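Protein folds are increasingly written down as discrete tokens. With that in mind, we are printing a sequence and the tokens encoding its fold.
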Amino acid sequence: MTDRPATEDAAETRPAASPLTGARARALVAAYGTAVGGLLVFLVFALAADNFLTVGNQFTILRQVSFLVVFSVGFTFALTTSELDLSFAAVASLAGVVCGGLVHHGYPWPLAVVAALAIGGVFGLANGLFVTRAKIPSLIATLATASIATGTAFALTEGVAWVGRWDKSFLWLGRGHVGGVPVLVVWMVVIALAAFFVMRQTRFGVWLTATGQADEAARLAGIPIRSMKVWGLALSGLFAGLGAVLLTASLSSAGPTSADDFLMKGIAAVLLGMTMFEPGRPNVPGTVVGALVIGVLSNGLVLLGAAYYVQEIVLGLIILASVALSASVLTKAAFTV
């Protein structure tokens, strides 16, 4: 009998690679790869940009991101039910105009806050009814209501922003501090945690998720899918009103286009969030991290002296890359009624 080479014996005794190992590795990369990439971007700016790591600059990033997180979390609720809300930025501008106008003309600031939230909620509710009752695709319905909101904001202000020295109690909502921490950061954390709890720990959140993932199966299971879609869009509008209040208090001004820049950034944050933690699905942790990545990119590029248009190019690339993974979800959200 011929002796076999030692290498063949070693090959026979070596344990075979588990097929689960590769699958787990791919799952980990899919779930956390984007977040790790964001951390690497942070480290690059920390090394390349002067003053990036200072406490003051980090708080600046968080303050800037806080508005984006509020708007993006609202958009996340809508997209969770497979509906798009392209009106939230325009609705926020209108809500800010109403809020700022009331404060500017001497009305009690709590009334102004309630009015802004009501504006957002009414527009969100209208979007939901247009989609579920009138059977208008959310892409079309929310573009129409965005136009209505923008026109109304210009009509109220005649194109001129409300500016003034307003009630300090109102301004504290956007400029105050809690234990040395900017109050905007506190608002951001509280809102994100509350949204995460609702989505993951309540029946309402489960119903929203089920409606977006498999609406027919959800309907057969007894879930009121039309009501869930209305709620998703209504919450997006409500968060637009809330973000408008914080933005107005922070800027001490309100104009008919004050929140317009948040439309593409908000969508990008949610889409980027869909590439991590729960790949292909809207999720609150992903949205928050996506917003932070966008905030870090914007701040870092400014500190490096990059031209303003570079930020727009980077934002567009982020959206394209994110949509490549989430195309089926977005197509369903935009055109399915």
Q: What stands out?
A: Residues 8 and 14 are 10 Å apart (CA to CA).
